[in-house]
Each structure stands twice: as C-alpha cells, then as structure tokens.
Amino acid sequence: MLAVWGAWTVHLYRQYQALAYELEAERQRNFAEMISHVEAMRGLMGKSLAAGSTRQNALYMGEVYRRASLAAANFMALPLPEELGAATGKFLNQIGDFAYSVVRHEAAGRTMDEAQRQELARLYQAATDLTATLRDTGQASVSEGFRFAKAGVGLSDLFTAWRERRAAGGADLTQDQAQKSLIPPGLNQVGPQMDQMPVLVYDGPFSDHLEQRTPAMGGPAITPEEARARALAFLPEGVTADALEVTERNGRVPVFAVRLPPGGGRPAVTVDLAREGGHLVSYINARPAGEPRLTLEDAREAGLAYLAAHGWSEMEPTYGEVADGFATVQFVHAPGGVRIYPDQVKVRVALDNGEVVGVDARSYVMSHRERGGLTPSVTREQARAAVNPELQVEEARLALIPTEAGDGEVLCWEFRGTLGEETYLVYVNAHTGLEERILQMLITDSGTLAL
What we know:
Layout: H1 2-50, H2 54-76, H3 82-107, H4 114-144, H5 155-167, H6 175-180, H7 190-195, H8 224-231, E1 245-249, E2 255-260, E3 269-274, E4 280-285, H9 296-309, E5 315-323, E6 326-333, E7 339-350, E8 356-360, H10 362-367, H11 380-384, E9 392-402, E10 409-419, E11 422-429, E12 435-444, E13 447-450
Parallel strand pairs: 7-9
Antiparallel strand pairs: 1-2, 2-3, 3-4, 4-8, 5-6, 5-13, 6-7, 7-8, 9-10, 10-11, 11-12, 12-13
Helix pairs in contact: 1-2, 1-4, 2-3
C-alpha cells in the first residue's frame, strides 16, 4: 500500500513539474517578446521624429501601432499585480492609439502639426525610459535566474516559505506579498513611471476620447460572486466559479476583473465586467495563434455569431485587419440599417479555428443608449448633390458618427465610392446637407482600414 501511495505521489509530482515547466516557458516567452516589441516601437518612434516625408512617417507610425498592440498583449498576459499591469498596459495602448490617429491624418493629406510632434517627442522619451528599465530587468532576470513559477516544491522550498512567514511576523504571506515575489527584478519601477505620464489626448476620425466621458450603460451594482457567475458565460466549458480570481479595477468604467489562471496547457483568460450593470467590457484569451486556415470573411462571420450569442443584437461588421495569425474586426450597432459608429465592439478571432480570443466593448459600454433623431431632414438625393460628382458612388446609407471634437454625434448620409483607384467614405450631414467628413479606405492584403 505504501509503495502504491509513493508511486502515485511521484506521478503527481511529475505531472505538476511538467505543467510548471510549460507555464514558465509561456510566461518567459511573453516577457521576452514584450521587451522586443517595446524596443522596436521606441526605435520606430525615433525614426518618425527624424522622417522628412509624410509617406515615410506614415509607414513608421503604422508599425508603431502594430508593435504597441503586440507589446500590450504580451504584457497583459503576464501574472503581474494589478497596479503594475494597468498603468503600463494603458500606456502601450495609448501609444498605439496615437500612432494610428497620426496615420489616419497623414493618409488624409494632413502632415503632423507642431502639437503632434511635441506629443510624439514626449511619448518617445517615455518609451526610452521604459525600454531602459525593461532592458535592465531582462538582464537581471537572466543573471539571477528569475522564474515566474517554480518547477517543483521540495524541502528547501518549504523551509524558504516558513522563513518568509517568520519574517512576516508568523503570518501567512498576503496576496500582495505573494504577487510581488513573482515580479521580475526591477520591473516594479515601471508602474510608478507610467503613473506619472499625463493623460494622452489625441484626435482623429471616430476617436472616442473615452477618458473624458461617463459610461452611457449602467445598471444595478453587481457583487464579486455575481461577476464570477457571469464570467462563466465567456469561459471554456467545465470551468467552475471557484477556479476564478476576482479583483476590482477602477477607471472610466470600474470593473471586476475575473481571471482564469493558466493550467493544463490552457492560457490565462481575463473577463472584465462593469461593476454597474455587469456588462462585458473586455475579454482576453492569451493563447498563441496556430497555423492560419481561415480568411478575414470567416472571422467576420465568427465574430458576428459570437456577438449574437452573447446578447449584442443588430450588429454589422465594418473594418478589419489580419496580423500574426489573428483577425481583428470592428462591429457597429445598426438598428434599422443605421450604423451607430460610437456603439462599436472590436472582436479578435484566431484564424486557426475561428475561436474568439478577444473582445473590446469599451466604446459600446461608454456610448450605447436609446437614441432619437435618426430621421433625416435631407433626402439621399439631396445629400448626393453635395458629393464630388466624379466620385463613383457604390453605396449610400444613414450613419451616426462622432463630431470632430468627440463631444457629440451627428446623423449623416454615408456615401462609399471610388475616385480613380482609391475608395472613400463621404459623410454629408443629414439635417444641413453639408459635407461633414471624408475618410479614405486603405485596402490591403491584410484587411481594410478607414483613414
């Protein structure tokens, strides 16, 4: 009997050891890739400051956007304390948003103005500081043999834990103390650096200025237990509520961050639910991409089915792009065929099997509400008269878009058409008949973007 028990114990130990090695490899890979993307992002920002042509600068800033998005995804996949991850993840996302807004302006023929150049210089300096910290952290992690997870637990580990408890006054380590023990050397300096960054304000077509607004969607406050229960709808089958970690995160939309820790070859999954109303704000599945087998159109269909299954009704896909084995598709609310661009949800789909691995519904939660005034005063034919007659119009429909300043909304006729070899979206105010906005459609092998 003792021999059987011993053999079973060894078996469990080896299983745990293999899982720990697998988990550690995933986290070390995310950490290394994050450092690589931040370094590349910082270099590209420097090149942008030195660029002498609008075309060259647009190329650099487009790559900054891509690198910042990848760095943010790698960083948020690491098991770091909330106060460290939130500020840095926000900073990386803001750099990406700023870069994207510059690309859109330059594609519309507007070069960077002095205010944008000063903003880019400020962000470049912050990225330089972040890069230096990450380099030091990476080198220290290698030299000190840092590990996010231990491969096994032996007598020496038990003794270390006992000694740490004694140092803490005989009590068990708090969750905060345990989290800090998993921070790579020197990385705890990053959070305070990012917290000192002023709020980034950028302008661009359909930009949300989310930090300046109050969520339109609300509802009764939910409890952490209710958050666990609601999060199960977005998690793999077989997951139970007691396996989930719940923390609170403040911001423009205060949320319960519900996290399913990685294990058994499964990556970490995080579900952010608004504390008022329990609405989904974001969903992140940190799994890597497999060999792509699906198209962007397949991703649109998968995303639309996912949204319908989770309660988003009358949604339409608009723009999308493919990169690194994933497709990101933007969907907008379209009741009665009127596209409500502020009510948008971005869905990330893995192109190996069509699984939805990311949802960003912040814009929807911030903006969605019952709206009136969606009846035009100007007919389609009257609005068409305001459009360049040389534009070959292919489609016309009503759309509600944000104002240029981001502080209101305006109902427009949206005309999609071609001029030469380029495709444009022209927006004519549906009440005044005046031209409101023009966007150029950038159509590439990886997808379509509105600039």
